[in-house]
Write a structure and sequence with these properties.
Layout: E1 2-5, E2 11-14, E3 18-22, E4 40-48, E5 53-59, E6 63-70, E7 73-77, E8 82-85, E9 89-94, E10 99-104, E11 112-119, E12 129-134, E13 140-146, E14 154-155, E15 160-166, E16 172-176, E17 182-196, E18 199-204, E19 208-212, E20 216-233
Parallel strand pairs: 13-14
Antiparallel strand pairs: 1-19, 2-3, 3-4, 4-11, 5-10, 6-9, 6-11, 7-8, 7-10, 9-12, 13-15, 15-20, 16-20, 17-18, 17-19, 17-20
Amino acid sequence: MITLRPALQRGRTKLSWLDGRHTFSFGDYVDPVHHRFRALRVINEDRVAPGGGFDTHAHRDMEILTWVLEGALAHQDSLGNGSTIRPGELQRMTAGTGVTHSEKNPSKTEPVRLLQIWIMPDQHGLKPDYEQREFPDAKGMVLLAARDGRDGAVTIHQDANVWLARPGDGGSIDMLMDPSRGLWVQVARGAFELRAGKKVIQLVAGDGAAVEAVESVRLTGRGATAEALLFDLA
């Protein structure tokens, strides 16, 4: 079964410095039909204007992933971390018992585009933690985040695997699925054909799709820049 979440139906926050699109309920955008998918709570596609950004704010009991698509994002937090996240780098922050942070676009001329992702942890009250990894020139299917941090992935506190899919134009990625688990496909760039069981749909940038109760999935790239994030969730 595939359930499509079209890009143009997402919620939106539009400010002078921010254009944010919300796959699930977020802030003032409340959508009871699209509140979360299993432990996946937030996928925001944010475009931040030059010099703009999120002032210091607090989080707790959430696994927060940041994947930059264009530009650069400067990060500061109450754990003492200061870094810049660029395309090909993933940041993971375990908010746990509480953490504050800010995210700014340090450029005076170039916007930044990013995916902000929240995954609910499998336990509350964790010690706050921070991690950042590079995935340079990743192609095919690359593990970005997992509970056990295997194969160079960042560690998240949930029975979830987050994959980067870059199959190339006409290339395909095949996944064997446990029918009891769910897969969320979020297209970051380009377009894809998604096949799950006997159903086939076309996806473009910004589209999301929930896949459940199937034993296999095939994702075929349409264009050289096709890129998607795949969330395999208990």
